[in-house]
Each structure stands twice: as C-alpha cells, then as structure tokens.
Amino acid sequence: MTRGKQKIEAQRRNAEKNQKAKGSQLEARAVALKVSCPICKVQLANEKQLGDHYGSKHPKENPPAVSS
C-alpha cells in the first residue's frame, strides 16, 4: 500500500490515463460531410444521399451530375 507522495502521484497518473480524448464531434462531422446541395446548402455524406435529398426536398429540380 502506498502512502503520501506515491499515492498522490498514482492518483494523478490514473486520472490522466482515464481522461476522455478531447475533440469535437463537429470536427469529425465536417470531415465526413463531403457533398452539399447547391440549392439549400445542406451537407450530405455521399452522392446517393444527395439524390434522395433532391427527390424529397427539391422534386421539381434535377440533381447535379455525379462528379467522379
């Protein structure tokens, strides 16, 4: 069993080890969202979602061509 300074140091090391990784979900979201609707500027993850978005939100418009 540790006492005094050893105990305090062990608690500090455990607290540092158990801390959650710092970072924002907004940063991860910005990386994942690569396609945006030119009409309403909503960001989508891929071309398929863009086609679905046009079908539901902009039914009178044609979706933009797929850029490969």
From TrEMBL:
Keyword Repeat: no
Alphabetized SUPFAM superfamilies for the sequence: Expressed protein At2g23090/F21P24.15
Residue span, C2H2-type domain: 37-58
Record-given protein name: C2H2-type domain-containing protein
Pfam families: SERF-like_N (PF04419), zf-met (PF12874)
Compositional bias annotation for Basic and acidic residues: 1-19
Gene3D superfamilies according to UniProt: At2g23090-like (4.10.1050.10)
Keywords: Cytoplasm, Nucleus
Stretches for region Disordered: 1-25
Location in or out of the cell: Cytoplasm; Nucleus
GO CC entries: cytoplasm; nucleus
